[in-house]
Write a structure and sequence with these properties.
Two copies of one chain form a homodimer.
Chain A lengths: L11 H4 L4 H15 L4 H12 L5 H12 L5 H25 L3 E2 L2 E2 L1 H4 L2 H21 L3 H23 L8 H22 L6 H28 L2 H4 L5 H4 L5 H6 L5 H12 L5 H13 L2 H20 L6 H15 L3
Antiparallel strand pairs in A: 1-2
Amino acid sequence: MKATSPLAPATLASIQLPIRAELDAVFGELGRIVRSDFPMVEDVSAHLLRMKGKLFRPTLLLLAARAVDRLSPVKVTLAATVELIHIATLVHDDSVDHSALRRGQPTINAIFSHQVAVIMGDYLYSRAIVELVNLDDPEPLRVMSRVTTEMTVGEMRELEAYDALDYSEDAYTALIRAKTASLMSGACEVGATDADPALRAVLRRYGTHLGMAFQITDDVLDYTESERTTGKPSGLDLKEHKITLPLIAALPRMTPAERERVAALMRTPEPEDDAIADVIESVSLRGGVEAARGRAAEYADRAAEELEALPAGRARDALADCLVYAVARRS
Amino acid sequence: MKATSPLAPATLASIQLPIRAELDAVFGELGRIVRSDFPMVEDVSAHLLRMKGKLFRPTLLLLAARAVDRLSPVKVTLAATVELIHIATLVHDDSVDHSALRRGQPTINAIFSHQVAVIMGDYLYSRAIVELVNLDDPEPLRVMSRVTTEMTVGEMRELEAYDALDYSEDAYTALIRAKTASLMSGACEVGATDADPALRAVLRRYGTHLGMAFQITDDVLDYTESERTTGKPSGLDLKEHKITLPLIAALPRMTPAERERVAALMRTPEPEDDAIADVIESVSLRGGVEAARGRAAEYADRAAEELEALPAGRARDALADCLVYAVARRS
């Protein structure tokens, strides 16, 4: 299987067709789980659920379960808890980064307060754990608690990925593996904890490679897409002095003058749009975007190879389409 | 059993005698659990462990286990996870409150950053859950995940307990039950999840009443103790516009002029020390401190009554001493 040369780009809606009914039920589960008899918790939950993400992680979990013939009502609850853990992470991320917008919508810290964001993230995560405990099956809990620990270490790693022009591709790889790939891998694995252990391992590896491709593509989009399609300003990572793969790959090929312009940007607390546009152009010119896209494609290919071990069928095809989606999406 | 008229005040060191060896082992477990191969996590963990709290919650857990004849090495690990969850909560609390000091020591958000505090709290909590999952016993997990959810709702409730002079004793009771009593209750219950269910329930109720007495006493100390003994400024709650029981109890008995001085303080973003001292005096004069102390004593008595259902012995005596400690301590 080759994931990187699709005839037609896969839309998320088409990918989700084989598990559409279960995915619709995930919204109901999310509502049930975050319900509280305390008004402020209700208000914040309502805002979060209104934002309706793409449910990409629940999609992965349900497709993985279907691919190994283990789709059941419990998987809907598991899919909801994985999305909750994802939302909890976003809420704390936005608080840590002081972000005002997420997918073009105001963040919890912006609408309510920083305090509410910290507490609400804790609430959502605790609720997810309660739900997992109630399923009386230690395996999903084992996977998800390991994953959330990895994610927090990833967040810690991210604090180092600022300013430092000598930030290495190895450090970047460790960072995105912990921050992004771990949860996608966990979602896939949790869909199959009750299946043949070999298939469970296949899906865990598939999810890791997919997650790497997904995050690298995300970081590329910051260099290539304009505000209208991403819902956030292009070049935001640079503005925040965040070092990602396109820049890491381009730096060794830059001229001394170009490198100095990058260094100057990193020294400037609030860099001007022109300075950002300038560095974005250099990164592209010196092949940073191309190199990063190539790396994303490599991970997608490795993920596609894993899929060959799964039974053929609609779910496996949809998982292959997820790879196309991960690397070809524009937002 | 009556807990409120001790012949000699109980010291924590004497209370901890029956479980001293296990308590020493808790430090080793804490170190093992928070170990990480990422330097920043190691640095922050080292700082947290250096602060060495009083291990009051592990003490409760181990005494509860001993009281029902269930002390075992697993209980040491459980005691460490309960302390970790407590520390995680403190780290997030300090970040939410922007506190610079905790027990006279600089907080994580003060030494490192607000970002590190949010992430580190998440890390410690996740690690505690991993540890609980590894014990292959769903009962402690069930208790602790319920408790942490309650604690986050308590934190949310606390955000409302500011400024509002009409904040009721009922709202205050719900707040401290969720914020403080839930974890102490959970610690006691987790010590006995493998014991007779009736004894488990006794210890859960004992822990709840103890926790209520403990927190009310904490709130009283803010009105009665000077900086040197508490390690934080007396009247800090008032300074931060936090409404606690001494004030709630005193308000209805205050003169209109006194009430107006309280209202004025609440309207002042950074009240002067004199204005705070003035309100502290009114609260004491109008019986707020005495009423709150009375309420703490009532809870301690209810907790003491629960203890009568436990087998007599050193551990039960020590649990009774915990009640004396909770209401008679000066810091």
